[in-house]
Each structure stands twice: as structure tokens, then as C-alpha cells.
Amino acid sequence: MLPHRNNTLTQPLALWITAVCLLLMSMSVPAEDKPVVYTVNYPLQYFAERIAGDLVEVVLPVPAGIDPAFWQPDSEAVSAFQQADLILLNGAGYAKWLSRVSLPRRKLINTSAAFRDRYLQVDEGVTHSHGREGDHSHTGVAFTTWLDFKLAAEQARAIAAALSKIRPASKNVFERNLALLEQELLALDSQLREMVATKPAISLLASHPVYQYFKRRYDLNITSVMWEPDVVPGAVQWSELKQLLKLLPSNWMVWEGRPGPESVARLESMGVGSLVFDPCGNRPVEGDFLGVMQQNLQNLKRAY
Amino acid sequence: MDSLYIAWKYLNFSKARTATLVACVTLIAVLPLALQLLLAESERQLLSRAASTPLLLGAPGSALDLVMNGLYFDDEVPELISMAAVDALADSGLASPIPLYVRFKARRFPIVGTTLDYFDFRGLTVTAGRPLALLGDCVVGAEVAERLGLKAGDSLLSSPETVFDLAGVYPLNMKVAGVLARAHTPDDLAVFVDIKTAWVVEGLVHGHQDLSRVEDAGVIIEQSSDNVIANAKLVEYTEINPGNIESFHFHGTPGDYPLSAVITVPNDAKSATILRGRHLDGASDYQLVVPETVIDGLLANIFRIKHMLDAVILVVAVATVLALVLVFALSIRLRQREIQTVFRIGGSRLTIARLLAAEIAIIALISGVLCAVALLLVHHYSDELVRSLVIR
């Protein structure tokens, strides 16, 4: 049997060794991996980031300057999507490339599935080309659902529900953040409705057929042409516009991006002002989604 | 020892007779044992695959055809259903659906159109190359890669459904994106594509030159502001590459696109019961089967046949043994002079009996060795034999 003096030495030593071992073990256990969520456009990325905060890594792999709706990923980009824990889709036929790639069905979340019965059909079927994304047409279902801020809030709710499934421990955080986001989206919704209600008869022209949900929700009197902000319209397009103005007199053209000065000047000579309402499909150069929408609202006020 | 030597010399002298006796004994021993081995292997293969597939949804009709096509990629294609069935299952929130479209072939191997979820479900991994990513990609099973000498980056052409279908769809030149690790299941013998690529093979999704920019005016039959009608001169793309992938498009609603079956993975036992209740006879446009039950039924039939075969083999065995006894009895009579000689040189009856016993022992030994070799071969190739003889 060991003498009492030895016991008094070995007991604290054993405690120290145990403590060091526990510390080392705790250091060697990796922190819970951050789920990775891929999105197909910027509004969804913004909503997911607002809802998840730092708890989730949210990725939009579409390069800047390209409309995500008409992007075509290569196999490496598709592979990155496949590795994600969750893939947030806009639905409503957004991102045609989805039908040309292989993605795991169980990871796909259609954020607009809850209101698929309210999708809008479009028939502006002329194929056209602009930017780096090449030829495309707008036939089928209208997809800029987030321009109806009430629908955008529904999409945000779908995102929060999907995030809660992959990270149930953070459900309360997600719901708290969602409530804030919803509040801001619905505030925008109210502002727009109030603004349009002041002059409901105003007729607007849209440079591109991307404002269908916006038009329906806010009861806008808006007619689309097939122009591009970065392309000066040709003689035929000007002639068609003159005909259109005879039928639907309008003082404003709503552009999805900043129009060229030549187009602006010629429109002004015809008595049509230009204002930008950016759908914000891809990450803006400055600010964020709500910032861009607030700016859009300010721009639209020029017409109202 | 002397008896064995003399018996061996005698058997060696009467080669034809010995060979006949050995063949008879070997065959009568090998047949039931080999049959037993093959049946055990087929039972293992059929049941393990069926047991790992909880539910299978398909069109009403033969449940066996549905299971054999959906699980073992059998040539017999069941009645087709549509993608709407997959959407309905997903919307139910009770199960994860994995669509299957097993109809076409590439160089005699079945093309299995599915989604990436199938690979996770079956635990299939890619050993070379990458998984499916783009329209037109395929990943091949280990056996397909070996037999066709395929590797990642190669091409594989789909086969036309019938040789005489001159107005049919052009074969699709698929890109081999990867090769699957050997799974020792029918997956080794399949060519996997995305479900959308399977529809390209069928011609439902296709790509062609932009009709608004064709140089040959003879291609256009009629053109209006919102519609262009082309004739058969318009060449459709037979290969999907980065240059033309964006021209590939669906016609109609994707929900109407065909499938042969849907592997249904219920969330839990309760969900499975609810789903089965919803698809009872007449309650739905589809049938939802438990593959294990269907295969159990098939095996019960196979074993009934096996019992019959066993009885036949038993009768043949008895007849053969009687024939062998007769052969020996006759040979003793024919060898009377030899036996007399043995007596005359001092051999006893016991010596004669030992000589005959040694002959029988040697024949039994040779037959035993041949039987063991044959059974080892059957066992070695049982996997493939079952797939070619029983499953496909």
C-alpha cells in the first residue's frame, strides 16, 4: 500500500492529466460544419443570408454582370451545386439551365411552390440576345416573382422552413430573422401600393417583359417592349414605339438597367422620360436587395 | 495398394468405359448441386435487391414486370407513367421519389434514366471521372466499362429501339462522365443517365439549329411572327456539347414526360402504410408494390419448379445408379476369364472384391474431383449466370 504522502501527490496529478486530456479532446472535435446553401439568383441569396446570418454559407455562383436566369453553368459549377446541402430555386421556370443539368432532387427547394397556382403565363416569345448570356426568349411562365414583395415574403418563408430542416437547432434564430425581413418586404409592398394608388391611371412602358408580377400586385398600367438598356434601338423599334404611343400614350419608360444616353435623349424628344427599376436578379455593384428596391421606389416616384 | 494399382491399370485400359462411368456419376452429382447453388444465388440477388427497395410505384398491370424492370433493368418495359406521379409523391410529404426510365439500350446494355438521388440510395460511387452533371452525360457500371472498354471522357451511342424505324429518333452520342465502382448488382451492367437525357434519347427533349437563323430556306415550311414550322431537313443535334446545350428544350409540360417506375422511399413505416393505403386496388391510377413481396412470390414459383426438378433428378439418379450397377454386373460377367485367372494364380474372393471396390473408389474419386471443379466454376460464375439465366 502506498504511503499517504504519495496519494496527495498523485490525485492532483491525475486531475491535471484528465483536464488536459479533456481539453485536447474538445479541441480535436471539429465544430459543427456550416451548411452550404446554393441559390439561383440574388434575391434568394439575400433572403437566405438575412434569415441565416452567419449560421449558413450562402452561395450564388453566377458571375457578376450575367443575368442568372439565362446563365449556363459548366460541369464544375454543377458539381459545386451538387455538393451543397440545399439548393434554393426560384421556381416559375426561372433558370432554364436547371433542365439541362443533373441535381439531386432531394436537395432542391422550390421557394415559390406555395403559390404555383398564381404563376403568370407570358407570350412574349421572340428570341433575342443581350449581354453575355446569349439568345433567350421569355415564353412560358413569368419568373420575376420577387418583384411582388408579398410573394417575395412567401419565398423568404419557404427559405426559412428549408433552413430549419437542415439546421433545426437554429430554427428560432431563423424565424426571428425572417420576421424582420418580412416586415421590411411588406413595408415596401405598402409603400408601392400607396404610391400607385395616388395616380392609378398612369400608363408606363417597360423596356423588357420582366415586370409581370410587379404589374399584377401593384395594379400598374404597364406595357412591355423588347428593348435592352445597353443596346440602342433600331429604326424598326422606334417606329413600333411610335405606333404604340399612339395607342397607349405614356410619359415614362421603365428600364431594368441604366439606359444609354442616346436612347434616353431620343425618348425625351418623344416626350417619354426614363427611369430605372432594377429587378436585381444578380448581386448589385453597390448596396443590397432592399437598398436597390428602395432606390427603385424613389425612381418610380418620378412618374407618380 | 496392389488392388488400387491393378484397378487403375484396368480402368486406364478400358478408357471409354471408364469415361462413360465417370461422366454418368459426375453429371448425376453435379446437376442437383449446381441447381441448388444457382437457386441460392438467384434468391440472394433477387431478395437483397428487393429488400433494399422499400416501395415501387408504376402503372397498373404486371407487378412482376414492374419490379423486374425497375430493380433488375429487365427488357420487358411495363406500362409507362408520367413525371406527375413523382411530383404527387413529393408533394405528399410522405416519401422521397426516385424516378426511373428503363427503356432504351446502348450497345445491349440498359440505359437507366434517373436522378442523382438514385446513386445515394443504392450507395453507388464513381471511381473514375465525375458524376452526372450536364445533359448528355452518362456514367457506366463497372461491368459495362470493362466489357466495352470505356473510360471517363469516351463516348457511347444509344441504340435505336428498332432497326427498321427509319423515321425514328437519331441515336444520342453520350459522353461517359464516369465509371461506377463495382457493386455486384445489376447496376454494374447499366448505363446511367439523367432522366432528362433519357428523354433526349427518346426525342422528347431535343436541340436543333435556331429556326430564325437557318441559312437553308428550304427547311422552313411556314413562318409567322410567333411560329415557325420546319420540315425534316432540319437536323437535330445528336451530341450535346457546350456549344449547343442551350438549344436543347422541352416540348410540352415536363409533368407529362414518361417514366417506367418510381422508387418510393417512405419517410417511416407510418408513411409507407398511408401510401400503400392510397394505392390500393382502384384507389389510384398507379400501383404501389412492395418488391420483396413480389420477389417472394416469384421465388415461391421458382422453388415449386425446383422441387419438380429435384424429383425428376432423383428418378434419373436412381435409373443411373441402376444402370451403373448393371454395367458393373455385366462387366463382372464379361471379365469372368480375368477373374478365373486371378483365382488360378492364388487370389481369393476377397481379392476380387477388393479389386472391384478399388475400381469403384477410383471412379468415385475422379467423379468427385470433377464434380468439385464444376461446382467451383458454377459458384465462381453464379453471379453472372444468375443475371443472364434467371434475372435477365
Structure description:
The complex is a heterodimer of chains A (304) and B (392). Chain A has 304 residues and is an alpha/beta fold. Chain A is built from nine helices and twelve strands. In chain A, strands 2-1-3-4 form a four-stranded parallel β-sheet, with helices on both faces. In chain A, strands 10-9-11-12 form a four-stranded parallel β-sheet, with helices on both faces. Chain A has a two-stranded antiparallel sheet with strand order 5-8. In chain A, helix 8 links the parallel strand 11 and strand 12 (273-276). Chain A is elongated, with a radius of gyration of 26 Å. Chain A starts with a helix and ends with a helix. Mean pLDDT of chain A is 88; it is low at 1-5 and 25-31. Chain B is α+β, with helices and mostly antiparallel strands and 392 residues long. Chain B folds into two domains: 2-45 and 299-391, no CATH class; 55-207 and 248-289, no CATH class. Chain B contains twelve helices and 16 strands. In chain B, helix 2 runs antiparallel to helix 9, helix 2 packs parallel to helix 11 (349-380) and helix 3 (63-72) crosses helix 9. The interface between A and B is medium-sized, with 21 and 29 residues.
SSE blueprint:
The complex is a heterodimer of chains A (304) and B (392).
Chain A: H1 4-28, E1 36-39, H2 42-52, E2 57-59, H3 75-83, E3 86-89, E4 108-110, E5 121-122, E6 128-129, E7 135-136, E8 140-141, H4 149-166, H5 171-198, E9 203-206, H6 212-218, E10 221-224, H7 235-247, E11 252-255, H8 261-269, E12 273-276, H9 289-301
Parallel strand pairs in A: 1-2, 1-3, 3-4, 9-10, 9-11, 11-12
Antiparallel strand pairs in A: 5-8, 6-7
Helix pairs in contact in A: 2-4, 2-5, 4-5, 5-9
Chain B: H1 2-13, H2 15-51, E1 55-58, H3 63-72, E2 81-82, H4 83-92, E3 95-106, E4 109-114, H5 117-122, E5 126-129, E6 137-140, H6 142-148, E7 155-157, E8 173-180, E9 191-194, H7 195-202, E10 205-206, E11 220-223, E12 228-230, E13 249-250, E14 258-259, E15 261-266, H8 269-278, E16 287-289, H9 291-334, H10 336-344, H11 349-380, H12 382-391
Parallel strand pairs in B: 4-9, 6-8
Antiparallel strand pairs in B: 1-15, 1-16, 2-14, 3-4, 3-15, 5-8, 6-9, 7-8, 10-13, 11-12
